[in-house]
Amino acid sequence: MKLANKITLSRFVFTAIALVLLYTEGFEAKVGALVFFIVSIVSDKLDGMIAQRFNQRSFFGKIFDQTADKVLVNLFWLALLDLRLLPFWLVALNLFREIVVVSIRGVVGTKGVILESKKTGKAEFAGRLKAALQMLVILAGLALIVMFFQPAAAVVSFLAPWALSTIFWLGVVAVAVSYWALADLLWKSRKVLLKDA
């Protein structure tokens, strides 16, 4: 297996470890969750750089890179919902958008087209901005959990109001941009989607 693909698969492992640590008691566990999330972000950039530089692009990489990114983002957004750092409606909108994107990719895939991931250099600005904002929301949430850590306390009970407001508005902007990216994807894929419809 190519190195880029190994790094992509490792992101699933890093994501699982970060989630387990997030729900483990103790300050060190929360710090570990933040560290492994950052490692996941770094691996996301690294596999793309290696794939481009050493010509290791593959069908496997295109599919699993996108999947790893979606698993990372959506599981952590659900975790932030569970920890009451994000409201249900915001996370639901984000998940609905992801379902629509997966459906679009599935439809165009049946027609022999694979929509490129962001690391091929062909992604639009909206898609790159959306991914960055989604990651920023998670990073901010984990950082604030570490900064305001209190043993055996509900997260929302000890976070300062400004902290909760910051995460919320970051989430709103991220979801708004994600729907902009969705509209852009629909427009760019319209010919393939409508073919033989």
Question: What pattern of helices and strands is seen along the backbone?
Answer: HHHHHHHH
The major sheet is characterized as: none
Q: Structural class given helices, strands, pairing?
A: mainly alpha
On the 0 to 100 scale, the average pLDDT is 84
Cα radius of gyration in angstroms: 18 Å
- Name of the top-level CATH class: Mainly Alpha
CATH superfamily: CDP-alcohol phosphotransferase transmembrane (TM) domain
What fraction of residues sit in β-strands? Answer: under 5%
Number of helices: 8
Give the distance, in angstroms, between the N- and C-terminal Cα atoms.
38 Å
- The number of distinct β-strands equals 0
Shape verdict: globular
Domain count, please report it. 1
Report low-confidence residues grouped into runs of 5 or more. Answer: 117-123
- CATH topology description: Four Helix Bundle (Hemerythrin (Met), subunit A)
CATH architectural arrangement: Up-down Bundle
Helical proportion?
over 70%
